[in-house]
């Protein structure tokens, strides 16, 4: 089932470099500089420790800083004197210091910074692990993370650059680009052999449809259901079939996972059973071996087989667990509804389905997701539906969601349709830009894509990059939005680096998008490296916009 | 070239030469008589204070500063107290030590910089003598007071006064003393009568120079070498003792046969010196004394001053300036009469070559036979560096270049480098510039420092030329010079702001590393805020403009620049500053015009100052956000009354915002809260804070159907929702009769399939079957399947002639249902035909 990749596809640059870099820095920071011997998680509770020196390693969030202030003040009140050190990563914000000052502990703590930007989750995924980026930037209009993103880009540039072409969609992309350029100009220029040629910057708010859809590739489903954290998932007892839960790293090192991660879920079972059969055959080779063969078998193959066996059984039970949840009637109907919404037919049925969904209180987030999907695909809800659906939602899940609605409206995720902007009008606008060449497997990976998805636009753009057409033509598919740019540094010869493409998602991306890019890469002989501020999915996206947790 | 050796004087094995550096530009009326004179080493400037002790206020003494070539830099009347001593710091600042112990510091151009005092007790006892000395820690000052106590300051930049212990038996002025820096400690060597003492921080130790003849008498003059390594002592009987400054070893003792105390005594040696010597100066005589009992005598016509250098002694008189130094070995080798050193032969060969004589070849052959051509070239290059006269330099370099032609593998680096350095040196030695640096000094002081000094003396064009010529990276070279130039330019009072801004911009352009904000800061310091703003406009990095703008109280501008920079920290800094500077109204108005800053501040307020947030929204008349704000804070309020009050405010705001939906929703929430409260009080139902749906659910599960129905009516809950709820709740409590009654109460808005499914979910097939018949035809098959009635499903499907449904039923059939399958398959075939 694994597609044979095009033979001419280039090698990915070695991202484990980043990991080693970060690890060394951290060890140096904690052990050499601060002699840290025990690690705890920072939480809002008193710290029980006899140590007279406490070191906090935190994100520059005001909330966390306030917790620390409480700790310090509590210690002071108890007459305990300790030394406190706060290490902010990736950078210190003035606002945090202001909080320290206001709480009267500025003199008691010393601060430091650890410029840690990039966490490679896999050989082609790098995460900034900044889930708050989305809310802060797109909802609150707080641009504090733009610089961080630019610094991350700068780091990649200095390690794997120089980039010859940079494309971007969205306001935040533009700002990130500018901030990065500034850093490049201030730093020294070193002529090196480029490992990454092209860069795409994409704002999350350019496309909300993709993350609002249910994911159907294996990795995406695992994320939706079990939640992957930093490339690591915790399978509960129902998967491990024991009473303990198990933490598993999900990356390309896991051979079984690597082969199924990008597959549509319906194909996964077939593949897994095929794999199981292969494994059995491999085990069966034992029979009729003489001693010598047995010895080589044990020393060379058995360990790998055992390992594979373990992983295989894990993924099979995970798939079963997913199956159990997903083959229920409601899921099928859910998918059908999504499909209808994307394709734009039987909208009334969809609305009543959503209504029922809300009435039956199936799930707060799911209901919200469907509402948003409806609004985004239909270019806003009719005033009548808008009111009644919202009212029903409030009745079901509590009036505090009034604030959530206000947030969603601000982002344009759940809006009232403006007169004269019906879907048909918009569709004719968009239809001119995208034609319906169905791209074989792509539809499979996405079940069916929204016509307006920028994802299609992305793949189109790549075609054009290959053709090396006139650069202004590249901009054409993206003229719907106001902030696109394409900057070409110097036309270099077609090298491997030109076919290594860095895609940076500002505000998070989903596993479905990653697997779609992987697929595209395989088809066209490109290699994509995804940099994202965080891995997201529909639930995370919407949870970030809830406002009832204050 | 015999004449080169004409001014060579032998001293032991070595030669000493005296070269004229400059005819002095100055014309001094009284020569150097009755003046305090300070000349800085490394070709530094000369300061001159006439008649420092003249006390009458009517005729103030004149302080004059000259370049080393005697070009006047500045001159001004001395208005402060009587000066005891003048000295130069390493940064070319003039230190004037006054009688009362105050040290005034002036820059090269005579502008006062700062002052410090050498201690309170000095004001009483007065300074008798002072010395400025240089150590690895910077420039220091040492004084001896009227009460015969020494006070030291090792570094004037980081002033720490050290009072040294008393010297036993010393009354009044010591006969002579010197400052030593040894083992990272600064000490004073003082001669008191026949005794010699070393004073350090804590003790005063008597010392005895090894090998000093007992009949030599007491020491009347002493001198420490430039590097603090050697010491020379002159006794009252005219004997000169030289040795190491740690007094462990004697180099020599020479009888100078001069009874008078010399006016000045300075070490004259160079690194790797062959014959270190001491130069002694009397009124009419200059004596060079080496360690080999030899002496050289020069008559002096004019009163002069000796300046000790790293590799020689400068002799400044009122008319001229000369350099006395030991002839470097390499120059001796080349120019010594009848020298057969390779360099000498090469020079000769080249000379013959110029004359087109075949002798050139002979000389060359001779060198090549000995295989020393490389050495010869090196010698010539090296000697050229040490020569002061450009013609000699040229001759040597040409010879080197000539010799180089016959070498295949010879690195040209040294040759090229020396050429360039000589060009630079010749340029700065030019009497209009007046920095008589030798190559050795230049190497010691480094190019960076040379450029700094040129800049400091405002020789900007020359400094830039030098940077460009030596190809120093812009960042360290040209840009640095331009920065200094611009900072100096903005201080020119006679030019308009516009003219200066234009001039600066034209010159500086966008040279890397020049920060316009630094220049602007300078302009602001000089009291030209308008100019500063003009200059700031040129600053490309807006982030750099902000601090100065804030300082200049241009806070609005600062804020917009901070926003432009994209650095949120900077924005925040300005916002905090503004918050403290402005009154609230203005502050909010300012923020309103800067959305980025506003949202940043809002984020902060949300967590830190909710009340400010409210004020912000109020200011903007943002009723929607105010409503949201009240809703948010209502959740923080634990008491119901408070909560309701907050919600009421929210309703008012939503009404103002014309958001009817939100207003209505909030009103309903209030009603619900009151209702819940009532029920909680009456029945202890624990409903407060639940959503409407959850409340109804809770009520039903408590059996309070009446109240639930009341809610259903009051809140106009959609029928569908209510039916679902009731259905679920009844089924869960297995009140099947109630359920049946309910199902018949009116036509179900959610259909009857739901009843079937819910019953099945609660494992009651019997009840479920009751509702199958009521299900609409479209859902019948599903309903039958749900209760597991395959035949019923099959019948329904066949009746509807729906192929897909038949298929669905078929897929559920197992092998035992053969009959049914056949039936279905048949029906399918017929259906397909139609």
Automatic annotation (TrEMBL), chain A:
Domain of life: Eukaryota
Gene Ontology CC terms: late endosome membrane; lysosomal membrane
Keyword field contains Glycoprotein: no
InterPro entries: Sec-1-like_dom1, Sec-1-like_dom3a, Sec1-like, Sec1-like_dom2, Sec1-like_sf, VPS33_dom3b
Naturally occurring in which organism (per UniProt): Poecilia mexicana
Gene3D superfamilies per the UniProt record, alphabetical: 1.25.40.850, 3.40.50.1910, 3.40.50.2060, Syntaxin Binding Protein 1, Chain A, domain 2
Annotated protein name in UniProt: Vacuolar protein sorting-associated protein 33B
GO biological process per UniProt: protein transport; vesicle-mediated transport
Sorted UniProt keywords: Protein transport, Transport
Compartments, as annotated in UniProt: Late endosome membrane; Lysosome membrane
Protein family according to the UniProt entry: Belongs to the STXBP/unc-18/SEC1 family.
Membrane topology: Peripheral membrane protein
Automatic annotation (TrEMBL), chain B:
Sequence ranges assigned to domain Vps16 C-terminal in this UniProt record: 514-827
Reported function: Plays a role in vesicle-mediated protein trafficking to lysosomal compartments including the endocytic membrane transport and autophagic pathways. Believed to act as a core component of the putative HOPS and CORVET endosomal tethering complexes.
Membrane topology: Peripheral membrane protein
GO annotation, biological process: endosomal transport; intracellular protein transport; vacuole fusion, non-autophagic
Molecular functions (GO terms): actin binding
Quaternary structure note: Core component of at least two putative endosomal tethering complexes, the homotypic fusion and vacuole protein sorting (HOPS) complex and the class C core vacuole/endosome tethering (CORVET) complex. Their common core is composed of the class C Vps proteins VPS11, VPS16, VPS18 and VPS33A, which in HOPS further associates with VPS39 and VPS41 and in CORVET with VPS8 and TGFBRAP1. Interacts with RAB5C. Interacts with STX17, MON1B. Associates with adapter protein complex 3 (AP-3) and clathrin:AP-3 complexes.
Keywords, sorted A to Z: Coiled coil, Endosome, Lysosome, Membrane, Protein transport, Transport
Protein location: Late endosome membrane; Lysosome membrane
Family from the record: Belongs to the VPS16 family.
Record protein name field: Vacuolar protein sorting-associated protein 16 homolog
Organism the protein comes from: Poecilia mexicana
Keyword Transport: yes
Coiled coil: 637-664
Signal sequence residues: none
Domain of life, per lineage: Eukaryota
Chief location category: membrane
GO CC terms, sorted: CORVET complex; HOPS complex; late endosome membrane; lysosomal membrane
Residue ranges occupied by any Vps16 N-terminal domain in the UniProt entry: 5-416
């Amino acid at each position: 089932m694994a597609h044979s990749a095009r033979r001419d596809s280039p090698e990915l640059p070695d991202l484990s470099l980043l990991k080693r870099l970060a690890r060394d820095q951290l060890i140096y920071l904690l052990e050499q500089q601060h002699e840290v011997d025990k690690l705890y998680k920072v939480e809002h509770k008193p710290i029980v420790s006899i140590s007279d020196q406490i070191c906090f390693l935190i994100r520059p969030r005001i909330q966390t800083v306030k917790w620390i202030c409480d700790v310090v003040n509590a210690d002071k009140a108890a007459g305990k004197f300790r030394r406190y050190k706060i290490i902010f990563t990736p950078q210190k914000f003035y606002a945090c210091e202001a909080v320290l000052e206001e709480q009267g502990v500025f003199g008691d703590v010393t601060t430091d910074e650890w410029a840690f930007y990039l966490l490679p989750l896999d050989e082609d995924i790098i995460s900034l692990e900044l889930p708050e980026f989305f809310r802060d930037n797109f909802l609150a209009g707080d641009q504090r993370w733009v610089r961080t993103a630019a610094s991350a880009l700068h780091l990649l540039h200095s390690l794997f650059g120089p980039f010859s072409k940079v494309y971007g969609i969205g306001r935040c992309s533009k700002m990130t680009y500018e901030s990065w350029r500034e850093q490049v100009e201030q730093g020294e220029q070193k002529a090196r052999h480029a490992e990454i040629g092209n860069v795409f910057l994409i704002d999350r708010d350019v496309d909300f449809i993709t993350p609002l859809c249910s994911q159907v590739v294996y990795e995406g489903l695992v994320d939706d259901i079990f939640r992957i954290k930093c490339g690591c998932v915790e399978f509960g007892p129902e998967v491990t079939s024991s009473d303990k839960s198990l933490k598993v790293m999900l990356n390309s090192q896991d051979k079984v996972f690597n082969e199924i991660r990008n597959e549509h879920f319906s194909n996964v079972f077939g593949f897994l059973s095929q794999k199981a059969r292969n494994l059995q055959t491999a085990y069966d080779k034992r029979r009729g071996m003489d001693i010598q063969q047995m010895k080589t078998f044990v020393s060379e193959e058995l360990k790998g087989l055992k390992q594979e066996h373990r992983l295989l059984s894990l993924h099979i039970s995970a798939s079963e667990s997913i199956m159990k949840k997903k083959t229920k009637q409601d899921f099928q109907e859910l998918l059908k509804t999504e499909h209808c919404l994307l394709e734009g037919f039987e909208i009334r049925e969809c609305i009543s389905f959503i209504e029922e969904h809300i009435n039956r209180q199936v799930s707060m987030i799911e209901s919200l997701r469907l509402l948003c999907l409806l609004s985004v695909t239909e270019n806003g809800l009719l005033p009548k539906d808008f009111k009644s659906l919202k009212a029903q939602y409030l009745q079901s899940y509590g009036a505090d969601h009034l604030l959530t609605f206000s947030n969603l409206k601000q982002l344009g995720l759940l809006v009232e349709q403006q007169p004269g902007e019906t879907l048909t009008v918009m569709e004719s606008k968009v239809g001119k830009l995208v034609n319906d060449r169905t791209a074989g497997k792509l539809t499979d990976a996405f079940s069916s894509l929204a016509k307006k998805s920028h994802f299609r636009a992305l793949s189109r753009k790549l075609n054009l990059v290959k053709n090396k057409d006139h650069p202004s033509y590249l901009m054409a598919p993206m003229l719907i939005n106001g902030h696109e740019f394409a900057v070409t540094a110097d036309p270099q010869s077609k090298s491997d680096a030109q076919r290594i493409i860095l895609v940076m998602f500002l505000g998070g991306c989903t596993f479905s998008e990653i697997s779609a890019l992987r697929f595209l890469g395989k088809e066209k002989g490109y290699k994509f490296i995804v940099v994202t501020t965080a891995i997201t999915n529909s639930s995370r996206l919407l949870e970030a916009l809830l406002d009832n947790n204050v | 070239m015999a004449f080169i050796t004409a001014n060579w004087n032998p001293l032991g094995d070595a030669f000493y030469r005296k070269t004229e550096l400059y005819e002095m530009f100055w014309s001094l009326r009284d020569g150097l008589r009755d003046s305090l004179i300070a000349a800085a080493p490394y070709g530094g400037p000369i300061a001159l204070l006439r008649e420092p002790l003249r006390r009458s206020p009517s005729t103030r003494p004149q302080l004059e500063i000259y370049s080393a070539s005697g070009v006047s830099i500045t001159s001004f009347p001395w208005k402060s107290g009587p000066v005891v001593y003048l000295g130069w710091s390493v940064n070319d600042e003039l230190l004037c030590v006054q009688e009362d112990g105050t040290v005034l510091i002036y820059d090269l151009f005579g502008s006062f910089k700062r002052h410090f005092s050498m201690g309170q007790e000095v004001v009483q006892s007065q300074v008798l003598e002072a010395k400025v000395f240089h150590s690895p820690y910077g420039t220091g000052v040492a004084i001896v007071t009227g009460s015969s106590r020494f006070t030291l300051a090792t570094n004037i930049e980081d002033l720490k006064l050290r009072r040294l212990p008393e010297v036993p038996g010393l009354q009044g002025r010591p006969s002579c003393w010197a400052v030593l820096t040894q083992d990272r400690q600064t000490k004073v060597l003082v001669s008191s009568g026949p005794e010699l003492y070393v004073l350090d921080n804590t003790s005063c130790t008597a010392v005895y120079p090894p090998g000093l003849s007992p009949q030599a008498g007491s020491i009347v003059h002493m001198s420490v070498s430039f590097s603090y390594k050697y010491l020379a002592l002159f006794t009252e009987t005219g004997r000169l003792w030289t040795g190491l400054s740690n007094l462990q070893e004697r180099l020599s003792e020479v009888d100078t046969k001069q009874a008078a105390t010399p006016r000045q005594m300075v070490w004259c040696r160079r690194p790797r010196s062959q014959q270190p010597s001491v130069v002694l100066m009397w009124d009419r005589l200059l004596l060079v004394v080496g360690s080999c009992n030899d002496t050289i005598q020069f008559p002096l016509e004019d009163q002069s001053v000796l300046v000790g250098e790293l590799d020689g002694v400068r002799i400044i008189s009122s008319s001229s300036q000369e350099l006395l130094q030991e002839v470097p070995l390499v120059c001796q080798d080349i120019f010594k009469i009848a020298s057969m050193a390779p360099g000498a032969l090469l020079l000769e060969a080249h000379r013959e070559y110029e004359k087109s004589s075949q002798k050139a070849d002979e000389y060359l052959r001779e060198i090549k036979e000995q295989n020393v051509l490389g050495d010869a070239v090196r010698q010539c290059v090296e000697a050229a560096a040490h020569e002061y006269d450009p013609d000699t330099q040229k001759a040597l370099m040409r010879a080197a270049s000539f010799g180089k032609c016959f070498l295949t593998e010879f690195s040209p680096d040294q040759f090229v480098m020396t050429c360039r350095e000589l060009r630079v040196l010749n340029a700065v030695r030019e009497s209009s510039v007046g920095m008589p640096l030798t190559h050795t000094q230049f190497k010691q002081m480094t190019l960076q420092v040379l450029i700094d000094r040129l800049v400091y003396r405002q020789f900007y064009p020359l400094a830039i030329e030098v940077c460009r010529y030596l190809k120093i990276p812009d960042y360290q070279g040209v840009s640095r010079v331009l920065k200094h130039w611009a900072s100096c330019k903005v201080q020119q009072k006679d030019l308009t702001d516009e003219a200066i801004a234009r001039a600066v911009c034209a010159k500086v352009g966008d040279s890397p590393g020049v920060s316009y904000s630094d220049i602007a800061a300078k302009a602001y310091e000089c009291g030209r805020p308008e100019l500063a703003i003009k200059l700031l406009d040129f600053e490309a990095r807006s982030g750099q403009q902000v601090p100065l703008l804030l300082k200049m109280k241009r806070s609005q501008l600062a804020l917009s620049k901070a926003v432009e920079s994209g650095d949120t920290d900077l924005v925040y800094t300005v916002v905090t500053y503004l918050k403290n500077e402005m009154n609230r109204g203005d502050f909010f108005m300012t923020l309103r015009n800067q959305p980025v800053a506003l949202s940043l501040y809002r984020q902060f307020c949300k967590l830190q100052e909710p009340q400010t947030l409210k004020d912000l929204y109020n200011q903007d008349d943002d009723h929607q956000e105010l409503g949201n704000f009240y809703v948010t804070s209502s959740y923080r309020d634990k008491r119901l009354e408070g909560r309701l009050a907050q919600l009421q405010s929210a309703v008012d705001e939503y009404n103002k915002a014309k958001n009817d939906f939100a207003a209505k929703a909030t009103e309903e929430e209030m009603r619900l809260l009151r209702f819940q409260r009532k029920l909680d009080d009456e029945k202890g139902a624990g409903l407060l804070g639940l959503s409407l749906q959850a409340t109804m659910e809770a009520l039903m599960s408590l059996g309070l159907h009446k109240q639930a129905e009341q809610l259903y009516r009051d809140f106009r809950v959609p029928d569908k929702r209510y039916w679902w709820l009731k259905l679920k709740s009844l089924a869960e409590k297995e009140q099947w009769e109630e359920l049946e009654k309910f199902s018949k109460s009116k036509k179900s808005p959610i259909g009857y399939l739901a009843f079937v499914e819910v019953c099945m979910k609660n494992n009651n097939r019997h009840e479920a079957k009751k509702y199958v018949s009521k299900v609409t035809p479209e859902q019948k098959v599903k309903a039958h399947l749900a209760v597991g009635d395959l035949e019923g499903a099959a019948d329904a499907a066949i009746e509807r002639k729906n192929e897909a449904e038949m298929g669905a039923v078929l897929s559920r059939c197992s092998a035992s249902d053969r009959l049914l399958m056949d039936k279905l398959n048949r029906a399918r075939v017929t259906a397909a035909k139609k």
